[in-house]
Structure to design on (305 residues):
């Protein structure tokens, strides 16, 4: 066998060994959840390809129908890497056997109104949010959906701070709009007295329809909401977890298209500039406000079953 054939034979053997090693490993299960009509699988395609290259393992991307089923999938040990929203993570963190939060989107320092909750009304008798408590029994309020952070969790925490600790018993009726767009549309049509949605949708709608300002009024705007985490399975080898962290931290530099694709799938990430490392303590702002423990656990219990 001449030298060229020997070299070619060696290259083929090395390639076959590398393919064999990659094929012997089970696929990494990368998962998220569907919002409205977007299952976000296409948004994660470039990230999955980057992870396949770095981990030398196939990456299978899955999207669960909603946050609730996503949490069940995680608890059933079906997920290795998860992109979840803030509320989903907080629910999971009370009984989390499998996943570790490692990173989330960092919002650029000069960002304005990136991810907040707005509380709106069409009721002329309510001029300030401080009046809601006394009138609550005569009012209907509409949240977005159970699994929404900006459209359910944050407004409930705010209401608890003004004395409405149980909206279901204190308001005349509690409804869900289904998504942010439908919720503000129903509010504008008079199907509810109050509506809580994400600020992105509110500002988008009033720019699109200038008459909307005459139909709904802004009562309250929250502080910026911490974005949900990327989580990894605790049983993944440390080396692989470190590779995943490294991929995320450098994605905005080394694979801009992958980073922008992820951003385009999450409206709350519109003003993000990179991923940052985090741990569970990053979300303590939901657990304690103004030096006191919040009613977070009580609120979360409503959505855990």
């Amino acid at each position: 066998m001449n030298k060229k054939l020997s070299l070619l034979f060696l290259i083929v053997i090395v390639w076959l060994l590398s393919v064999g090693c990659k094929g012997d490993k089970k696929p990494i299960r990368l998962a998220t959840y569907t919002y409205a009509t977007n299952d976000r699988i296409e948004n994660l395609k470039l990230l999955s390809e980057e992870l396949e290259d770095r981990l030398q393992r196939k990456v299978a991307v899955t999207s669960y129908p909603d946050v609730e089923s996503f949490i069940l999938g995680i608890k059933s040990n079906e997920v290795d890497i998860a992109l979840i929203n803030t509320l989903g993570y907080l629910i999971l963190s009370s009984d989390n056997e499998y996943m570790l939060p490692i990173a989330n989107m960092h919002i650029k320092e000069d960002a304005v109104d990136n991810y907040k909750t707005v509380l709106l009304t069409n009721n002329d008798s309510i001029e300030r949010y401080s009046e809601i408590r006394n009138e609550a029994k005569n009012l209907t309020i509409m949240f977005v959906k159970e699994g929404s952070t900006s459209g359910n969790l944050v407004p409930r925490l705010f209401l608890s701070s003004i004395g409405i600790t149980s909206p279901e018993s204190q308001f005349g009726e509690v409804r869900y709009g289904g998504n942010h767009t439908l919720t503000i549309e129903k509010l504008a049509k008079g199907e509810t007295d109050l509506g809580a949605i994400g600020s992105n949708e509110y500002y988008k709608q009033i720019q699109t329809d200038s008459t909307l300002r005459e139909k709904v009024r802004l009562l309250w705007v929250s502080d910026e909401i911490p974005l949900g985490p990327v989580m990894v399975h605790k049983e993944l080898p440390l080396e692989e977890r470190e590779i995943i962290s490294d991929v995320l931290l450098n994605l905005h530099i080394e694979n801009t298209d992958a980073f922008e694709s992820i951003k385009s799938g999450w409206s709350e990430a519109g003003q993000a500039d990179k991923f940052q490392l985090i741990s569970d303590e990053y979300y303590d702002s939901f657990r304690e406000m103004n030096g006191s423990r919040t009613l977070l656990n009580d609120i979360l219990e409503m959505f855990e079953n």
Notes: DSSP finds 14 helices and 13 strands in the chain. The chain has a mean pLDDT of 90. The CA atoms of residues 105 and 275 lie 4 Å apart.
